[in-house]
Amino acid sequence: MRGIKSCGMLMAASDPTHVNVELLVPPEGAVPGERIWFGSEDEKENQPVAATPNQIQKKKIWESVQPYLKTDASCIAMLGEHVMHTSAGPVMCRSLKNASIS
């Protein structure tokens, strides 16, 4: 945006019609720019090295992961059965349950 390169991403949950859309929100106390992870607190230590922008583009990582991103019945962001975490807790949306994330 405005000629400034960014490696950030806004993620939102939406209903099947994409009429209702809500941004995902990190919990209070999350550190801006920190790396999120999926799974338990123990799994944070076992993350692979982050992919480079070139690897992400060539391997189409987003395209392969996005279909599995959803919110659960409690509005918590999930990758399959794994919770999306920050150091302060799980990432959520306000009210969209069992919604797709993009």
From TrEMBL:
PANTHER family to which the protein is assigned, alphabetical: NUCLEIC ACID-BINDING, OB-FOLD-LIKE PROTEIN, TRNA-AMINOACYLATION COFACTOR ARC1 FAMILY MEMBER
GO molecular function list: ligase activity; tRNA binding
Origin: domain of life: Eukaryota
Domain TRNA-binding: 1-37
Keywords recorded for this protein, A-Z: Ligase, RNA-binding, tRNA-binding
Alphabetized InterPro entries for the sequence: NA-bd_OB-fold, tRNA-bd_dom, Tyrosine-tRNA_ligase_regulator
Designated name of the protein: Tyrosine--tRNA ligase, cytoplasmic
Transmembrane portions of the chain: none
